[in-house]
């Protein structure tokens, strides 16, 4: 029954060699949203996983989609009733940043040592907070209130971008990454989540970032990693 609502993007037999590889399954809606950082980490690491997308044929947001979600979610075994959920050999994790950090540690993109790991986590938490601020605007239906919320979000975001710029520049001048000397899940989170929220509010993240050229260059650096670029090219095209 549950399998009928799943869209399995890739269904390949997992490693059958002598080394037992963990079997990963990532469950989310048919959107980039809070699952995309994890998907990019899988792409960057070249790791197999099942990209499970719930109700790909139902429009979202719609009453039909919401009804189907309420009807189905109790059957999915979600630890706290929300997605994304990562299933690792039948054990489950929720919370997008926890999932991303777990995968980053598994695949070597969490930062080197305790301090870099903590900095990457700090930046990811700030990315989450910064872009959650766009949600009221993205959900508002009244055009006048929406315009007011958009103005406030863009104004608040300018201050936050200055903070991100400063943190980036503190790390060797700002032409590398947020933490250490290589890409971490913090850079990926920044690049992914800014696109996602700006798309949701009908704005363009790259256009907005023109006033912070080093942040724009960081985003483009992340997107140009060959394995990431390949995933961006082939992933399902979704509006959010
Ligand atoms: N803090 C959580 C929030 C998860 C969340 O809000 N998930 C939404 C989808 S983006 C959800 O499951 N909504 C359906 C529901 O709450 O019933 C995270 O980062 O994973």
From TrEMBL:
GO molecular function: glutathione transferase activity; structural constituent of eye lens
Keyword Transferase set for record: yes
Domain GST C-terminal stretches: 113-240
Enzyme Commission number(s): 2.5.1.18
Sorted UniProt keywords: Eye lens protein, Transferase
The keyword Transferase is annotated on this UniProt entry: yes
InterPro entries referenced in this protein's UniProt entry, alphabetically: Glutathione-S-Trfase_C-like, Glutathione-S-Trfase_C_sf, Glutathione_S-Trfase, Glutathione_S-Trfase_N, GST_C, GST_superfamily, Thioredoxin-like_sf
Source organism superkingdom: Eukaryota
The protein's name: glutathione transferase
Residue span(s) of domain GST N-terminal: 22-111
Name of the top EC class for this enzyme: transferase
UniProt catalytic activity: RX + glutathione = an S-substituted glutathione + a halide anion + H(+)
Similarity-based family: Belongs to the GST superfamily.
Source organism per UniProt: Owenia fusiformis (Polychaete worm)
GO biological process, one term: glutathione metabolic process
């Amino acid at each position: 029954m549950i399998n009928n609502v799943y869209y399995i993007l890739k269904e390949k037999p997992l490693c059958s060699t002598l080394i037992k590889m963990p079997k990963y399954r990532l469950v989310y809606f048919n959107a980039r949203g809070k699952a995309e950082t994890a998907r990019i980490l899988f792409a960057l690491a070249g790791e197999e996983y099942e990209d499970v997308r719930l109700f790909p044929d139902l429009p979202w947001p719609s009453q039909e989609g919401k009804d189907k979600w309420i009807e189905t979610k109790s059957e999915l075994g979600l630890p706290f009733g929300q997605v994304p959920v990562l299933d690792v050999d039948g054990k489950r994790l929720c919370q997008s940043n926890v999932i991303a950090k777990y995968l980053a540690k598994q695949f070597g993109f969490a930062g080197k040592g305790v301090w870099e790991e903590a900095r990457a986590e700090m930046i990811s938490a700030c990315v989450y907070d910064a872009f959650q601020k766009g949600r009221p605007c993205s959900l508002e239906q009244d055009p006048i209130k929406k315009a007011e919320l958009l103005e406030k979000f863009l104004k608040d975001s300018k201050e936050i971008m200055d903070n991100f710029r400063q943190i980036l520049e503190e790390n060797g001048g700002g032409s590398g990454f947020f933490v250490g000397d290589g890409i971490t899940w913090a850079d990926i989170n920044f690049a992914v989540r800014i696109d996602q929220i700006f798309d949701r509010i009908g704005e363009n993240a790259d256009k907005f970032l023109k006033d912070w050229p080093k942040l724009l260059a960081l985003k483009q650096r992340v997107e140009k990693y060959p394995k990431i670029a390949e995933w961006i090219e082939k992933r399902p095209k979704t509006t959010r």
